[in-house]
Amino acid sequence: MGAEQTAQELGVEFTEQTPGYLNLCIRSGNQLITSGHTSDLKGVLGKDVSVEQGYAAAADCARKILNSVHNTHGTIDGLKVIKLLGCVYSAPDFTDQHLVINGASDLLHQIFGKDGDGYHARSALGFAALPTGAAVEIEAIFEIT
Predict the structure, then answer these.
(1) Which residues contact 129 (CB under 8 A, 6 or more apart)?
(2) Mean pLDDT score, 37-44
């Protein structure tokens, strides 16, 4: 079973996007580089948003990223996840950003394989604010294999 079929079985939807102010995903050579994709969930981790809610918000970001990649490349089959940058709207004393961004990493591991094309580099950082008050924003880099 390919990555695209696995993703669909996990509830990832591939819908047509209309171009906006910025490019959500751009191809450069054999890489697909995404803009930051924000979660629908708003709020501050460590204040009014739990780690579990943040984890789900990060998975939401990953689903949106995959949709943008699909719109640009036509499929998510034949890709390798290279890098994620996870941004978490965090209270000053919140230090579990990595546990939040695991929501995106775990979904990508399920789709592409933890020991294969889904095994990626990652950063998980805390921010004083994110656009629109989103709890999580993630950007990604994929390699076309």
Answers:
(1) 89
(2) 98
* pTM for this entry: 0.97
CATH number 3.30.1330.40 given to 27-138? yes
- Asked if 132 contacts 22 with a C-beta cutoff of 8 angstroms, the reply is no
Phi, psi of 144 (to 5 degrees): -85, 120
Structure tokens at 22: 């910025």
Cα 62 off chain centre by: 3
pLDDT in tens, 113-133: 999 999 999 999 999 999 999
Could you read off the pLDDT of 15-37 as tens digits, one per residue?
A: 999 988 999 999 999 999 999 99
Q: How far apart are CA 124 and CA 99, in angstroms?
A: 9
Q: Where are the domains of the chain?
A: 27-138
- Write out the two tokens for 46: 């460590």
- List, in sequence order, every residue forming a beta bridge with 143; answer none if it has no partner: 31, 80
Q: Which residue has the tokens 């009014």?
A: 48
Residue 39 has pLDDT above 90, yes or no: yes
Look at residue 19 in the predicted model and tell me its pLDDT. 85
Any alpha helices (H) in the chain, and if so which ranges?
Answer: 3-9, 51-73, 97-112
Element spanning 136, H or E: strand 136-144
